[in-house]
TrEMBL record:
Organism: Roseovarius albus
Protein name (database record): Inner membrane protein YdcZ
Highest classification ranks of the organism: Bacteria, Pseudomonadati, Pseudomonadota, Alphaproteobacteria, Rhodobacterales
Keywords associated with the record: Membrane, Transmembrane, Transmembrane helix
Top-level lineage group: Bacteria
One GO CC annotation: plasma membrane
Membrane-spanning parts: 6-25, 37-58, 73-93, 98-116, 131-149
């Protein structure tokens, strides 16, 4: 593998490591705010502020209205999914714990990702699902089940 490509894998690993930290922070903020909706608003407000600072610093080109109109309707739903995910972390982390919650999230991702890959959905190039991808997805789902044995 090209060393530059190998180095790129550090970014998703770091993102993955930050997800349970982010989820725990969201759960704590939810308790402090008294309701997941207020905590979600606060969290996204901070995100919005960070984005404004980033735009002011990097000064990316403003998108044209025609390019925004050209985006398919489903592309605009990402923000809704973000709200659902953040609220789920706030409500479910205290009930399930970070490890079980994140394992279930990863299992859900691993169940959906091969479907997206196989069919080239969401604007990606199709990537055939083979034995190794199916096995990896199944192992993720089995991992969630194994983590639940202590509760049985």
């Amino acid at each position: 593998m090209d060393p530059k490509i190998a180095l790129l894998w550090f970014a998703p690993l770091l993102c993955g490591a930050l997800i349970p930290i982010h989820a725990g922070m969201n759960a704590k903020l939810s308790r402090a705010a008294g309701h997941p909706l207020w905590a979600t608003l606060l969290s996204f407000g901070i995100s919005f502020f960070c984005l404004v600072v980033g735009i002011a610093w990097l000064r990316p080109t403003l998108p044209s209205l025609s390019s925004l109109y050209a985006a398919p309707p489903w592309a605009w739903v990402g923000g809704v999914i973000g709200v659902i995910y953040v609220m789920a972390t706030m409500v479910l982390i205290p009930r399930f714990g970070a490890a079980a919650f994140i394992a279930a999230v990863v299992a859900g991702q691993m169940a959906m990702a091969p479907i997206l890959d196989q069919n080239g959905l969401l604007g990606t190039a199709p990537r055939p699902v083979d034995f190794f991808r199916i096995t990896g997805a199944m192992l993720s789902i089995i991992g969630v089940l194994v983590m639940q044995f202590e509760k049985a």
